Amino acid sequence: PLPTEPTDTHVGSAAGRGAPGRVAEVHAQTRRGLIVAAGFAVAAVLSMVARAGWWMPLHLFVVGGLLSAISASTQMLAVTWSSAPAPRPAVAGGQRWALAIGAVVLVVGHETDRKFLFAAGGATVVVAMVALGFIVIRILRQAVTDRFAPAIEAYVAAVVAGAVGMSLGIVLGVGRGGSRNVEIRGAHLVLNVFGLVGLVIAATLPYFAATQLRSKISPRPTPTTMRWSIRNCLMATRRPRAFDARYSASKPCSSGSGPRL
């Protein structure tokens, strides 16, 4: 008799690599993540309309919306490109809701001036991002092909940079910055904007653009050149003086005092 496809399409650790249903499963998880991201984006717009200041709309959009979108998209792209099994629904869902709940608690703690809530929410967001890093590492280890490994490795590096930047944000929020408050704020901005968001974009575009345009990828972005490019992006975030008020007036970014854009 002809072999039949199993009715259970869930791909777990024992299901084997490239098993049927992995793409559909990760796409379903991605849709849920993007719905959460859209909800935070709407909440950010409503808070702007209500004139809640700048901090609340910004962090609803960035922490709740943008990070949810990044979490969903990086998992989807990593699974699709590597042919690895999709993360278990419980794992992906736990990471997604930890991030969402942490973002809400963070904002509530800031707006009610309750530092313990702010710290708890921020810590939950950091834990959720660290969990994303472990999810992506697992996908990378179970990859069938290493053609897209540099992009997936960059996602891990971006998560690490973001986790550090968010931790610095918690330090600022609870008032522990002290005399280095301005420097910590600069590092917080650079690590999140360039280290997290920028690195994800830089690692994705060379592969994603060719896919969307239905054209061959240029032979120039070899794994070696991609890894060097990612390294350069990370090195550009090591001195965040471009965001330091004491330097920005006299030393532009191109002078070597901050990240070269």
Shape: globular
Q: Please, what is the average pLDDT?
A: 82
- How much is the radius of gyration in Å? 20 Å
Q: Could you state the order of secondary-structure elements as H and E?
A: HHHHHHHH
Give the N-to-C terminal Cα separation: 62 Å
The biggest beta sheet reads: none
Number of helices: 8
Task: Report the count of strand segments.
Answer: 0
Low-confidence sequence ranges = 1-17, 240-261
**Class from helix and strand fractions:** mainly alpha
Strand content: under 5%
In percent, how helical is the residue content? 55-70%
Short synopsis of the structure:
The protein has 261 residues and is mainly α. The chain contains eight helices and no strands.
Please give a handful of descriptors for the protein shown.
261 residues; mainly alpha; 8 helices; disordered N terminus; disordered C terminus
